[in-house]
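HOLO CASE FILE
Compound: S-adenosylmethionine
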Amino acid sequence: MTDEDLDPERYYDEFAESEWDRLDRDPVTRMEFDNTTDYLADRLPESGRVLDAGGGPGRYACWLAERGYEVEHCDLSHEQVAIAREKLADRGLGDAVTCRQADLRTLPFETDSFDAVCCLGGPLSHVVDGDERARATRELRRVARPDAPAFVSVIGRLAMLRDILTFSVEEAHGLLAPVAADGDYTAERVREFADGEGWAECHGFRVDEFEAELVDADFEVETLVGLENVAARTKRELSAADDEAVADVRAVVRRLREDRTAVDVSEHMLAVCRA
Ligand SMILES: C[S@@+](CC[C@H](N)C(=O)[O-])C[C@H]1O[C@@H](n2cnc3c(N)ncnc32)[C@H](O)[C@@H]1O
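Model generated. Tokens follow.
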């Protein structure tokens, strides 16, 4: 594996088709989707133009278009954009959504042009450099109309460390200390500490840091949500559990989802903001 294989654009081009299943693979990924759409349903305006930035294969774009929104979908990966177009067309939603290849750091949209902005499932985490990420966050703020809601979810650092521990503690324990210190899972570190075997480069957030970066970009953070919280890293266990057990876990995750510690331990943390 080379450093380029861990480059987010290349990584998401390569795994484009499997990304469509990302939010429907097991009870934990479904919690990410269901908890996110709960907040979308509650805080979105009744109608209007919505941005789905870093929208990947288009699950949220489909959800939004099905509810009557005019959606602009964009993603860095041209393969993800192609799949989103296909999935939307299959569902008869092609006319409601425009899909294009674009980078969060330079969004090709007018200032104050969206009634709501979404950047879900970790696109901002894939902008590892802090200054570049600040630029991308300011771009999300720039294109939102004053007072528009923004929904941003990123990857949690503590769950990322659990991932390294669970899947590759023998081969990759050297990654734990640097990633714990600054959250940066870079190709350079994967080369040094994990023989180059790894996932797309990303930045894992602590909750305080996530909130501070959004405030720096001039968002007002209304609610922070731990999308999987106590169920983080239990995909295998919950996939084998019966429906009643899964329903109990879902109820507990729902009850705890705005608890700040539960946000911090989540695989994905969502911020519901206002521009
Ligand atoms: C885990 S996927 C999430 C996709 C979708 N929002 C979802 O929740 O299923 C992360 C997406 O962010 C995209 N991405 C990464 N860096 C990006 C950037 N700088 N600009 C735009 N999209 C980016 C990737 O191509 C990928 O499709």
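CASE NOTES: The CA atoms of residues 1 and 197 lie 6 Å apart. The pocket of S-adenosylmethionine is lined by residues 8, 12, 22-23, 54-56, 59-60, 75-77, 80, 103-105, 120-123, 126-127 (CB under 6 Å).
CLOSED: yes
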